[in-house]
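=== RUN LOG ===
request id: a7f3
mode: sequence -> structure
chains: 1
length: 116
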Amino acid sequence: MLQENTQLNQDKITSFEQLKVDLRSLIATDDLEPEQARLLFNAYGDKLKNDDPELYSQLSEVVLISAITQAFKNKIKHVPLEACEVKVALKYFSKHLKAHEPELYTQLIELDRKEA
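=== RESULT ===
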């Protein structure tokens, strides 16, 4: 019984380490989808915060950028964005927007051109 528990704990540690490797790879290649990032953050955020603060920070950033992008999408539906908001969105979030929200990125580019 003790040996089974030890093996089970070792398997959990191994699978968590593999999750961290996979997560690093997804973040590095910008293949981590926003919804997937949010779910992983909710499920493993506390453990990552203690176990791997750097990876926690990277995952947090993806989740935060996703939330900000969603806020831009919601705002643009209801009121026009100000020129400074468009500039900020393009300056700080264009990589994420190109990868995960191409329609919003195109819309912001068009708004930026109109302002120029």
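=== NOTES ===
The helical segments are 2-28, 34-51, 53-78, 83-100, 102-115.
The radius of gyration is 19 Å.
=== END ===
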